[in-house]
Amino acid sequence: MFSSNSRLRFVNDWKIPLANGQTCCENELLKEFYESGGRRKDIIGALNRVPMEPTMIEFCKQLHAHGWKLVVLSDANQVYIQEILRHNGILELFDRIITNPAYWDEERLVISRLIGPEHPPHQCPLGICSLNICKGQELDTILAEYIQQQHQMIKQDEGTVKVVHPRLLYVGDGRNDYCPSLRLST
Ligand SMILES: [Zn+2]
């Protein structure tokens, strides 16, 4: 139970992080974790205990072996994703990781929003994506880059440009995967 003083402190301390979204709240929690003695090895140890489905690991290896580019598009953060992938031996298979920035300030993990409060909002037309990322818009950007790369390769090989739409396999299970799923086309 909170006393009225501690409740007031909680409301005041968390007013800005709550208004700035989930990632800012997570950063505040990481700060409190550090101040209460939590260190880098504790976080890394916890990340290394996160189970990853063996069939998903094998699936990533098979896709990579067959020439697919693997991309992580996530509302988590760089450190969490990199550590989990590294621990499972598949980090090097991924072409890129698009997520919230994170870094170690010595022993403290600091995370921030991909689209911060200082940036223009992402203008997602659905209005349901979180403040810091619209996965649909990020997906559009990645696809445009890959299509451009393909065109350049074809241009070099054949001297002509063909319109080639890359095959895309999207896997997601969260609310913020709804927006990108609407952008998939045949
Ligand atoms: Zn969106």
Automatic annotation (TrEMBL):
Domain of life the protein comes from: Eukaryota
GO molecular function, one term: metal ion binding
Essential cofactor(s): Mg(2+)
SUPFAM superfamilies: HAD-like (SSF56784)
Keywords tagged on the record: Magnesium, Metal-binding
Family annotation (Pfam families): Put_Phosphatase
Keyword rRNA-binding annotated: no
Binding site for Mg(2+): 173
Protein name: Phosphatase
